[in-house]
Amino acid sequence: MSLREVVVVGGSIAALTAVETLRMEDFDGRITVLSDEELPPYTRVPLSKGVLAGRESADDVVLAPLADEVDLHLRTPATGLDLEAQTVLTPDGPVRYDGLVIATGARARRIGTPGQSERVLRSYEDGLRLRDDLRRVSSVLVVGGGFLGMEIASTARELGRDVTVVDLAPPLDRLLGTTVGRHVRAVAERAGVHIVLAHGGVRLLGEPTPTAVETPDGHRLEADLVISAVGDLPNAEWLAGSGVPLSGGIVVDERCRVSPYVVAAGDVTVMATDDGALARTPSWTNAVEQARAAVRSLLHGDDAPEYRPSRYFWTEQFGLDVKMVGPLDPQGQPAVLDGSLDAGSALLAWPDAATPRQVVAVNHHTPPAKLKRMLTGARRTQLPA
Amino acid sequence: MQVHADRDKCEGHGLCADVAPEVFELDDDAVVVVLHEQVPSALERKAEAGARVCPVAALRVST
Q1: CB–CB contact B14 A369 (8 Å)
Q2: Which pTM was predicted?
Q3: How many domains does chain B fold into?
Q4: Domain limits at B34?
Q5: How far apart are CA A41 and CA A180, in angstroms?
Q6: Considering only CB atoms, which chain B residues are within 8 Å of A369?
Q7: ipTM, 2 decimals?
Q8: What is the pLDDT of residues B6-23, one digit of tens each?
């Protein structure tokens, strides 16, 4: 069947890339984009940095606009899907498709009670609100020491605020491994950040605005502003009962397919990993690459290449530029390929220099494309351009 | 078509160059360089795609 009408649900980088790929593949039918965002597609990457610091505004984060002929509907959430009738339901009425790309992304996970006005950072509006909050306070407590939490901590420190990060485990270890994690934490602590471990998690205290957390042993940490950076949840509830397979996200096959004429990409998806378990990969590069693969399989079916994630992650915080390729959480001590962490710039590989499974560059000017080529089996797992 | 690169914003992820190596390159400091002052018309679509994929929105296209 030749597709005449493609509907893309979502309004961020995966949706944008899907549209881009449709055009690159010479799809000349109609493209409709349904986005629940206020803004046209923008990048969330600067939200924890330039936007939070007040240096960047909407103009700085909005991505290059879609072509005029693309029908973009903002503030239009998808509320349901009828696979049989090939129709997406919205508050404005049903939208029919021949081909559907689901890229509804994720939202911030919350740990507060319904009565609490919990501060999170996911959307541009969240960024503006936190920027204004930060101007009014002298102390900040960040719950969660992942990339996002530590980047928020970095910006808040840069603004001169008293900053504490609280997490279940040493921040960043499970992402960057213990060697790099320890290094980044040391730099953060030298910059004045207090890092507190709370085994068993914390409870937000204060209504409506949380101003403290309590650890399981009854210890209280207070701050003028408490920000939760405790992960994200896939926006898949609107598909409940639709027949789309859901298991902690939309389950996609090796070509990002969900059901006939339906593909999905980005933060909302789960895919089988090497060990067979289903996992999400909420990252910019995954959203981009998966959207490309999804559209190709929508257009070309089994002739499209299988999706092989390139697994590129990065974070910028406390003057450190950390770029990583390979699966997160490298184990054990790395081999040093160049420089040294103590000297401020290093290129590290796990498990050894001869057969790297992961490579991390810390303030080291090796382009990510080159890092990817260093990985063992890179040629085998590379996506065709 | 012209592409303006904000070299201060660029973080050297190189996704633009992955998409459109004919238009974008990273220099020795891993900062983006636009290879054409005027983008040839045959490369316009690729240049746009390369600009859109920048995670820090450092690339702007104008016609």
Answers
A1: yes
A2: 0.95
A3: 1
A4: 2-62
A5: 33
A6: 14, 17-18, 26
A7: 0.93
A8: 999 999 999 999 999 999
